[in-house]
Amino acid sequence: LQVYPSAANFVFVELPAGVRASQVATVLEKEGILVRVCESFPGLDERGLRLAIRRPRDNDRLIQRLQTIVASRRP
User: Fold this and answer.
1) Could you give the 3-state DSSP secondary structure of residue 72?
2) What is the pLDDT averaged over residues 60-72?
3) H or E stretch including 25?
4) CB count in 10 Å sphere of residue 15
5) Residue 47 pLDDT more than 70?
6) What's the CATH class of domain 2-73?
7) Where are the domains of the chain?
8) Which of 22, 47, 50, 57 yields a CA-CA distance of 20 to 30 A from 16?
């Protein structure tokens, strides 16, 4: 995962090659975690996700789930 610095209450994450943001977002949504797929943003592709910064325990849960999902989807 590549996480880019931000001055707002969200961060942009680029997923590894072969991992589509839309697939990750679908899995997270089923668990009650909402993220923004950024493939429609100019200059970005199917690997971009925007994550909101929330409470520490929510962020920890998101990071844990994101790592697990990405690890299971890598080619």
Assistant:
1) helix
2) 92
3) helix 21-30
4) 22
5) yes
6) alpha beta
7) 2-73
8) 57
Angle (CA) 51 69 56, round 5°? 40
Tokens (6 digits) for 27 = 């899995």
Predicted confidence at residue 29, as pLDDT, reads 95
Structure tokens belonging to residue 26? 């679908």
Q: What is the pLDDT of residue 27?
A: 94
In whole angstroms, what is the distance from residue 53 CA to residue 43 CA? 23
Share of the chain above pLDDT 90, in %: 85
Is pLDDT at 75 greater than 70 in this prediction? no
* Tokens representing residue 61 in the block: 């849960």
